[in-house]
UniProtKB/TrEMBL annotation:
Ranges of residues in domain GSCFA: 23-254
Pfam family, one: GSCFA
SUPFAM superfamilies xrefs: SGNH hydrolase
Protein name per its UniProtKB record: GSCFA domain-containing protein
InterPro entries for this protein: GSCFA
């Protein structure tokens, strides 16, 4: 007797390996995948303006990176003693406009280089609901807890999303493999009915883009969460975000989808190395710690041989210096 409808994924044409560079953007789910890739020594960058939730703001970020145009003080707002940008996450807010611009433009420069160099791009759409600034009509990526009267709430249409990304795929994203996914995180502030409608719009838009462009793919993270796992025990206590166990499961499905067998075979050893780097040493200089250090250096040597194009110098220096 079966009690689950598991989603079976085959190896796709979308490719993630250690010889390719990646760029990820979108909701907090993209941060989860980025963290796993970075820990496994893949060359990746993510969210240079911070976490973004709606497709319009993600598209605006991509255009700004492609232009490379620095942010100016006239694009900032001030509230609660902090200077911020409606294009950025609150983590970029600073006590002075100068500090805010320095943080934003440093990240823009790094992000522009990462996007231009990327072989593949992963975009995670979180919601089709957007908030427009009432005075300018510009879509805010983040409302920064400003009064609701400052905004007009709207819902993007499938046609708007497809048109905007069609232009990007012929421009800044041309020649790159693009993976679209819909975030499994539930936007309950939109109401459950509003959240369902929003996700349906995002899913339909992603399907239209994947069907219309050769280098665009879709990864079913939303369906894995809702139709495979399909149980509240796979959510955090807020009943909104996937649990660590759910993220682990979806990550495993992602590796099946995007990585060849040789790359996947290296993941356990790369994970072991990452765990060793975060291991808390209680008795420095002990015999046990010396054995741990030698085993870790041996693991670095093995991985360096398997991945000659990856830089393990920082890991080698850490274990060579002693613990």
């Amino acid at each position: 007797m079966k009690f689950r409808t598991e989603i079976a994924l085959c190896r796709s044409g979308f490719t993630v390996d250690h010889g390719r560079r990646g760029f990820l953007a979108g909701s907090c789910f993209s941060e989860h995948i980025f963290g796993r890739l970075a820990a496994a020594k893949f060359s990746v960058a993510a969210n240079p303006t911070g976490i973004l939730f709606n497709p319009a703001s993600i598209a605006g970020m991509i255009r700004r990176l492609a232009e490379g145009r620095p942010y100016e003080v006239g694009e900032l707002s001030c509230g609660g003693g902090l200077w911020f940008s409606y294009d950025h996450h609150g983590s970029f807010a600073r006590a002075s406009a100068k500090e805010a611009l320095e943080a934003m433009n440093a990240s823009l420069t790094a992000g522009a280089g990462a996007l231009a160099a990327a072989d593949y791009v992963v975009l995670t759409f979180g919601t089709a609901w957007v908030y427009r600034l009432a005075d300018s009509g510009r879509i805010a990526a983040n409302c920064h807890k400003q009064p609701s009267g400052c905004f007009r709430r709207e819902r993007l249409s499938v046609a708007e999303i497809v048109r905007e990304y069609g232009e990007l795929l012929s421009g800044p994203l041309a020649g790159k493999q693009v993976l679209l996914t819909v975030s499994p995180v539930r936007h309950v502030k939109d109401g459950l009915e509003g959240n369902s409608l929003s996700k349906a719009i995002l899913r339909t838009a992603a399907a239209s883009l994947a069907e219309g462009f050769r280098d665009v793919y879709y990864f079913p993270s939303f369906e894995i969460m809702n139709d495979d796992l399909r149980d509240y025990r796979f959510y955090e206590e807020d009943m909104v975000h996937p649990s660590a166990q759910a993220v682990d499961y979806i990550w495993g499905k992602f590796t099946e989808f995007a990585m060849d067998p040789d790359t996947r075979a290296l993941l356990p050893r790369l994970g072991k190395l990452d765990a060793a780097l975060h291991h808390r040493v209680l008795h420095a200089g002990s015999a046990a710690v010396e054995v741990f250090r030698e085993c870790s250096l041996k693991l670095v040597d093995e991985l360096q041989e398997a991945l000659p194009g990856v830089d393990f110098s920082a890991e080698r220096a850490y274990f060579t210096a002693g613990l």
